[in-house]
Every structure is written in C-alpha cells, then in structure tokens.
Amino acid sequence: IKRIPKTLYEIGAKIDLSWNKLRALVSAKVKKSGLQWLDVSHNEISVIPNNLEKVHTLTYIDLSYNNLSSLPEEFSSMRFLRELNLSYNQLTRLFSSINKFLYSLAILRVSNNQLSELPEDFGSFKVIEVIDLSHNQLEHFAETITDLRDLQ
Predict the structure, then answer these.
(1) Backbone phi, then psi, for 99, in 5-degree steps?
(2) Which among 122, 127, 118 has a CA at the least distance from the CA of 151?
(3) Pairing state of beta strands 107-109 and 83-85?
(4) Max CA-CA distance within the chain?
(5) Most CB contacts within 10 A, which of 29, 96, 123, 127?
(6) Residue 85: exposed, middle, or buried by beta-carbon count in 10 A (0-12, 13-18, 19+)?
C-alpha cells in the first residue's frame, strides 16, 4: 500500500497499516471518528499532517520505524492519547509543549532518534508511566524530569 484514503480516520476503531510503503498520512478531514488505535510503523512516512489532532478519539499511535525528522506543534493537542511510539526516526527535538496538552499520555517511546536535549518542561507530565529515551544523543536532562513520580 502506498496511499491511503482520505476517509481513513472515519473507519473502525483499530487500523494497522504497518510494514507498507506509505510516505505520508493523509490530512484529517474528519466528520465522525471512532478510530482509537493507529499503527503506521515500518513505513516511509516523513511528514505528519498538522491537523491529525482532529482525530480526538485516538489513544494509541505507533509511528516507529519511519523517516520523521520533526513533529507539528499541533500534534500536542491530542489530549486523549495514552501511548505514543516515535522510536527509530530522525527526530532532533520534541516540541516544547509535548506535556502541556498530552496530559493523558502514559507511555512515550522515542528511542533511537537524534535527540540531544529535552524541552525544559519535560518533567511535568501528569500520568506518564514509561518513557524510553534510549539510544539518542542526549547530553543533559531538564531538572524537572525528577518530578516524574509515576515512572515505572
């Protein structure tokens, strides 16, 4: 599969499009969505549409093993998202408000990227339990990371 329909976000509660040759996700033109779980790992995606946050029902997204180098700031507005996997991309930074609106986020995986620093407010996640930052180029942590009391 190389392209996906514009109505992707309106079908089903769970969609697995992993291990294809997708280069991009379609813009979210959502009238009504029941989509909660989206796996587009192991593709060739280099851009996330800046209106993906309109799919308010998403609780799980796996974007690992793609070609992402950045995330749109709007991505942070996905307030019901519980698990986000961005591992094995080329991310050099996380948006500064990653924890401001992703307040339901419990699991964040960003291993094997090019991160050299974390946003200063990174440690103010409300319910985060798992953060995987392994295999990056981190040189220092924000002091607020010690405030994360629910980490397992």
Answers:
(1) -95, -10
(2) 127
(3) parallel
(4) 44
(5) 123
(6) buried
CB-CB contact of 18 with 42 (8 Å):
yes
The pLDDT tens digits of the residues spanning 96-107 come to 767 666 779 999
What pLDDT digit, counting tens, does each position of 83-135 carry? Answer: 999 999 999 988 776 766 677 999 999 999 999 988 877 777 778 899 999 99
Q: Which domains does the chain have, with CATH numbers?
A: 1-152 (3.80.10.10)
Distance CA 110, CA 91 (A): 8
Beta bridge partners of 66: none
Least Cα distance to 150 among 113, 104, 117, 112 occurs for 104
CA distance 26 to 43: 14
Handedness of CA 135, 107, 117, 47 (dihedral sign): positive
Characterise 124 by phi-psi region: left (phi > 0), alpha (psi -120 to 50), beta (else): alpha
The separation between the first and the last C-alpha atoms of the chain, rounded to the nearest angstrom, is 37
Q: Rounded distance, CA 100 to CA 25, Å? A: 24
